[in-house]
Amino acid sequence: MFRAADRLKVVLNHLDRPSSFVQPSSTSGQNVAYYQPQALRYSFDNDLLSTEQRISYEEDGFLLIKGLVSGEDIDRFRAAFERICRREVQVPGLVVMRDVSIAKSEFVPDQKAISKLQDFQEDPELFRYCSLPQILNYVECFTGPNIMAMHTMLINKPPDTGNKTSRHPMHQDLHYFPFRPADRIVCSWTAMEKVHRQNGCLVVLPGSHHGTLKEHDYPEWEGGINKMYHGVRDYDPNHPRLHLEMEKGDTVFFHPLLIHGSGMNQTQGFRKAISCHYASADCYYIDVRGTTQENIGQEVKEIAARKYAVDDVTFEDTWAVRGRLVQGDRTNL
């Protein structure tokens, strides 16, 4: 992945050097920086990640682990999703979303009417994903031992109706989060079936996590845009991009500043994935007023006020009630 193997060889050859940062060396005609393990900013050395994997995440902002979640678990999550779609269970706090192109007259109580479930922390079966030991083992590499599950989603990307509304604009997840530091937040995103370019796999801009949080808003798309689908206002369209094609059970972990999105689903099937955003319990809330996040903060507050009939809810409140401790101690969040 991005010449990581070549970089690893150079790192291992320099590990006995006294300096914490090794001077750049030339590989394939390009200058690339090489790191000592203790100089890596975005991950911890806990004997799970190889030096190669840590360098890859350091430079690219994501790490793909093949076959991390079993087919049996994926099938159980799918069954739980279908029970919700058939309205066989009521989950407190669950947000059920539909693609903007699906007219109300077309509503039927099955998965064809639902494009996403958010905040499934009160559904025991779906939330089990967030506590899978093999997931948490990797999450701890990025957050440390005290881990909060902050945001849960099951995405059911529908076949595009022709309006291109099944796209998700390029964005940074940190735009939605009023807590910091960013480097102690990570997303796990698991494919529930084969994911490829035709059905709208993730698209990432490797290395974009090294930048700052950019301004986001609704893109001006002719066919309409789904609720809460904010996009980055300004990013380099010439930045190299990578389509993450994945098999069922493959899981990608990525930094909240990584610019990413997904394309249209050009197949006749629904593309499913399950994900959770985790944060260190040592993280802290920030006031987003007067920042680029003020627009999303206001939008979330208005939705919460309508849903729960309360006037004094804050953006931070909406996250505090959703967060669940999944490992260690709830030290702050």
Characteristic terms for this protein:
333 residues, alpha+beta, eight-stranded antiparallel beta sheet, four-stranded antiparallel beta sheet, 18 strands, 22% helix, globular
Description:
The protein is of the alpha+beta class and about 325 residues long. About 20% of the residues lie in helices and about 25% in strands. It is built from seven helices and 18 strands. The longest helix is centred in the N-terminal third of the chain and has 15 residues. It is globular and about 50 Å long. The chain starts with a helix and ends in a 6-residue tail after the last strand. Pathway: Lipid metabolism; fatty acid metabolism.
Number of strands: 18
Tell me what portion of residues adopts beta-strand conformation.
15-25%
Distance between the termini: 34 Å
- What's the mean pLDDT score? 84
Tally the helices. 7
Give the % helix: 10-25%
